[in-house]
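Posting this for the archive.
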Amino acid sequence: MSSPIERLQPPDWPRARGYSNGYRVPAGLDIVVTAGMVGWDAQERIVPGGFVAQFEQALRNVLAVVAEAGGGPHDVVRLTCYVADRDEYLGSLPALGAAWKRVMGKSYPAMALIQVAGFVEDGALVEIEGTAAVAPRGMPEG
């Protein structure tokens, strides 16, 4: 079954690459909002491996919260990514793309990237918060 969430692409705009311009979420779906997730494990230890490893783990952490509500990558409609170093992000794009596909598959929500001075968590290089629209519990998908 197809999702009732509608991807929005203005007809005169070039196709977005690596993100979507927007989504329409129909009434009746539950909105799931995550906290900002850093790249740490369930014991709150920053994962080793640097920026890309932390980015991948932060995505996994967002999806863990979405999964708790019964959703998956296809239900995520918006991500906001905060990075400490824009140049590190840009220099890591090929590896980030591979990490993205491992976690999100072909799901590309509306996204924003914001460079910040730092994070509350020592050693954090990235923080990601998400919004998802999932079928209410007990309601079949589609």
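The chain is about 25% helix and 25% strand. Residues 6-10+30-134 form a domain with the 60s Ribosomal Protein L30; Chain: A; fold (CATH 3.30.1330.40).
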